[in-house]
Specification:
The complex is a heterodimer of chains A (about 450) and B (about 280). By secondary structure, chain A is an alpha/beta fold. Chain A is about 40% helix and about 20% strand. Chain A has 2 domains: about 200 residues, Rossmann fold; about 170 residues, Dimethylsulfoxide Reductase, domain 2. In chain A, β4 and β5 form a beta hairpin. Chain A is globular and about 65 Å long. Chain B is mainly β and about 280 residues long. Chain B has a domain of about 160 residues. Chain B contains 3 helices and 17 strands. In chain B, the strands form 2 sheets. Chain B has a 13-stranded mixed β-sheet with strand order 5-1-6-8-9-10-11-12-13-14-17-16-15. Classes of the chains: A alpha/beta (about 450), B mainly beta (about 280). Chains A and B meet through α4, α9 and α10 of A and loops of B.
Chain lengths: ~450, ~280
């Protein structure tokens, strides 16, 4: 991979090639893509997976105005003015989204949240938020994806389907690569899937545990008990987990015997009954296993820069998501300050939604509340959320049109190499303008 | 008694943290009216939300009205009495160290969060995380008594360290999760995974339907524990309804959670065989 700034290698005069571009579609944030651009259209994306190709090749700049106020075209300056007034006049303003924009823009958004004494929340609260809560209780024994590629000889996928959701994860990091201590690649690894469904991921594994739905906690408790040498009743284990005790015992023996165990988990764990306590049980299992061997655990993050959102909000406020600053200092309480809850309870009275579409995926009460309050939306695309917004900014697409920083799912920062300019401003530019106007309106420096 | 009649209609949370019997007992009514509380990110005088009447000198406060949007009632109080005539919001009695709170209605989440002493009696239902540790804290409630006449939500007594929680109705999942010590008495049905990760302490199930336990709790005999009769007597003295049949009765004991320290005990009332 090139470590220099964006390099271009003209192949034919009308085609621009950007090497080592970064795909921001999923949390893998592959930064080895060579994209070819002709007439402001990407015509090729070498090494991109099927999702990455769709991300790059289907990209086009919306020909909407850069700003709409109540559905009517307006200048960006007018939109900034209206947005700043909405945010400063509110008593319970919320800022939400942030997982599909640069960390530079995220940082400005958090600053605005502080200036308006608002609540800052990210899409983490509806995906891996339970993991963020569990990190505080159990800690996280962690590593980078590079360590997994070079050392991980037992890989367990729990409640996730990377074969379809993170297609290059297997080949770049977790299953196939020949690593420093795994010279034979796949042959040196034992791969295990634990899921309620027989997915495409499960088919690529050495072992598959098709567990009883909503029994993740019981499965994890069984493994924790086995790690501690506790005798369990086979009938109870089979009833609770859907899997024979002997199979769990076999898995535990492999876990204790491996040199570098890895558990990669998805929303099949975090969003089923038990949520953060499922995550806490898994993190605790990984912690327990370090009494026997090296064992790590990592969440499989979905959005391109949701990990960046966690990082930025955490190093800005001390908490990863659902942070309320109405008293002038940060307070963290998922369920109380998370966006789906503040909307569903009709508490929020203004909002700014950045690179997210809650109108398409929140609960009906939350969507009804959002539709009833003034809110600002920033998004490159026309979405249900931008359509109902009081002020809608059409922004440039991060990674394709704008540079900046994103964080890979293992918290490694990656720089973006844009392919071509957008006619629209970036999230960073719009948010910075709103921030300055908010500072003027609130007499803050 | 100081009476605070809630007359606001805002949907934005109203937070009355700091408005305790100790604070107001030496204040004049105009001073109390000027006491600033939070409405979202605005700090406003109490009188914008409440009609203030009565005499605060006896360290008794009565809240009246539909207060489900009013949070932190009685938080950090050290003495005196708070009565709520109506539904209350979140964090009732949070971190209180003394005094009594009665809510004659329902209460939201986090009743008695990290409470250190005193009594909270919710005469209706309550939300999640009763007496629990706030996220990131090592310990939940460390002393005192919480009585819920009705039902409660998930994670009742999360990381409970000491004290008594009694739930008259049913409760949600993970009651007594990661308990360090203390006592939870449940008179209705339990959700799944009760007492998961408990280290010490007691969770007693006095209802008719025995809970499904995790496989890391092991049977440890049948008894009529004397301490339980003392607790039930105390509950009756506090005005909490203890159903007939809870005492005398046989209780089957389970030890666990062996994934954690394993010194906790679960007591499950054995219901007499039909016929």
């Amino acid at each position: 991979m090139s470590t220099t700034a964006a390099s271009t290698k003209p192949v034919d005069p009308s085609v621009k090639v950007v090497t080592d571009a970064t795909c921001t579609f999923c949390g893998c944030v592959c930064d080895d893509i060579d994209i070819s651009v002709k007439d402001n259209h990407i015509i090729e994306a070498k090494r991109a997976c099927v999702m990455g190709k769709a991300w790059f090749l289907n990209h086009h700049a919306d020909d909407r105005p850069s700003c709409l106020i109540e559905g009517k075209p307006a200048s960006v300056a007018e939109g900034v003015e209206r947005a700043a007034r909405i945010l400063t006049e509110a008593r319970y303003p919320i800022i939400y989204g942030l997982s599909d924009t640069t960390s530079e823009a995220q940082r400005v958004a958090v600053h605005i949240g502080d200036l308006i004494a608002g609540t800052v929340d990210t899409t983490t609260s509806v995906c891996h938020g339970p993991s963020g809560m569990a990190f505080q209780s159990a800690g996280e024994v962690t590593c980078t994806l590079g360590e997994i590629a070079n050392r991980g000889d037992l890989i367990i996928f729990w409640g996730g389907n990377p074969a379809e959701n993170h297609p290059r994860h297997f080949t770049k990091y977790s299953l196939m690569p020949k690593g420093m201590f795994l010279p034979n690649g796949r042959k040196d690894r034992t791969a295990v899937a634990i899921d309620v469904r027989n997915t495409k991921t499960a088919k690529a594994m050495d072992l598959f545990f098709q567990v009883k739905p909503r029994s993740d906690f019981e499965c994890l408790w069984t493994l924790r008990a086995l790690a501690k040498g506790i005798d369990l009743d086979p009938a109870v284990v089979k009833k609770d987990t859907g899997i024979e005790l002997a199979r769990w015992q076999d898995l535990m023996a492999r876990m204790k015997a491996c040199k570098f165990g890895v558990i990669l988990f998805g929303m099949g764990l975090t969003m089923t009954r038990g949520k953060h306590l499922n995550s806490e049980a898994l993190l605790s299992l990984a912690r327990d296993m370090n009494a026997f061997t090296r064992f790590v655990v990592k969440p499989m993050r979905g959005h391109g820069n949701v990990t960046g959102a966690d990082n930025v909000v955490t190093w800005s406020t001390g908490y990863p998501f659902g942070v309320n600053m109405s008293r002038g200092y940060p307070r963290f309480n998922p369920g109380e300050y998370t966006t789906s809850d503040t909307l569903a309870r009709n508490e929020a009275d203004a909002a700014m939604i950045i690179a997210s579409d809650p109108m398409a995926n929140f609960s009906q009460p939350a969507r009804e509340r959002l539709a009833s309050i003034p809110y600002i939306a920033l998004d490159p695309k026309d979405t249900p959320t931008t359509r109902a917004a009081t002020v809608a900014f059409t922004t440039a697409t991060y990674g394709i049109n704008t540079a900046g920083t994103v964080y890979r799912m293992d918290d490694v920062p990656i720089f973006l190499r844009p392919a071509f300019e957008s006619p629209h401003p970036s999230d960073f530019d719009v948010l910075t303008a709103i921030k300055h106007r908010v500072m003027e309106l609130t007499n803050q420096q | 008694m100081l009476t605070l009649q809630y007359n606001a209609s805002t949907l934005v949370p109203v937070e009355v943290e700091g408005l305790t019997p100790t604070l107001v007992r030496n204040m004049s009514l105009p001073d109390i009216e000027r006491f600033e509380i939070f409405n979202g990110n605005h700090k406003l005088p109490l009188a914008e939300f409440f009609t203030v009447t009565g005499d605060p000198s006896d360290a008794r406060i009565q809240f009246e009205g539909e207060l489900q949007g009013v949070h932190w009632i009685g938080a950090q109080m050290t003495e005196g009495e708070v009565q709520v005539r109506g539904n209350a919001g979140r964090h009732v009695g949070s971190e209180m160290t003394g005094g009594t709170i009665h809510v004659h209605g329902n209460a939201g989440d986090w009743v008695g969060g990290e409470m250190h002493g005193g009594l909270i009696h919710i005469h209706g239902n309550a939300g999640h995380l009763i007496g629990a540790a706030y996220r990131g804290s090592a310990k939940g409630m460390t002393d005192g008594t919480i009585l819920i006449d009705g039902s409660a939500g998930n994670e009742v007594g999360h990381t409970l360290r000491r004290g008594l929680i009694a739930i008259g109705g049913s409760c949600g999942d993970f009651v007594g999760f990661s308990m360090l010590a203390g006592t939870v008495l449940l008179f209705g049905d339990s959700g799944i995974r009760p007492a998961a990760g408990m280290r010490r302490g007691t969770v007693a199930f006095l209802g008719d339907k025995p809970p499904a336990l995790l496989g890391t709790f092991f049977r440890s005999g049948v008894s009529q524990p004397l301490f339980l009769s003392l607790y039930l007597q105390q509950l009756r003295q506090l005005g909490f309804e203890v159903p007939a049949g809870c005492w005398p009765a046989n209780y089957r004991m389970f030890r666990g959670d062996h994934v954690a320290l394993g010194r906790g005990e679960l007591l499950i009332r054995e219901t007499p065989a039909a016929g």
